[in-house]
Amino acid sequence: MSRRYLRLRRYCQSEVDKIDFPRPFSVDALCRSIADRRGRELHLHPLPRQASLSGTCGVWIATTTDDHIFYESMTSRVHQEHIVLHEIGHLLFNHHAVGAKDTHMFGDLLPDLDASLVTGLLGRTDYTTRQEREAEMLASLIRTSADDAAQNRPRSVAGKLAASLGIEASADE
Question: Residue 164 falls within a domain, yes or no?
């Protein structure tokens, strides 16, 4: 592995280490946890059809009060979740790319959005930029960490009940 890749992975892992993964893990529960941590609502929306047709599969829009993540709806659930995790990467790293042309372009795709409220906006384009590589790595590390946490979940009925109530169960459950 290259040093550049290892640096990227360490940098992204440091952000993943700050995440309190919900148990059981779900992308929706993770979004609620991140919203609570940030003190801002985080809303998930399927992309409008015209955005999907333009080749866009994910968008994060930050307004003055909320965050909105749009994802491609005409793909598998696993791919939708990866798109959302990728956009969460942009959100957590506070990546921005707002310019007059950006808000105009997405204003066409999301006509109900008041462009004056947009403080940050990023759409997935390609993976050649630093921001895209960071978001993609973070999405992959979140999924891996969530899968690792799921392997440690309790197997017994009592253990599952204790976990759902947030109670530590004994090691053998």
Answer: no
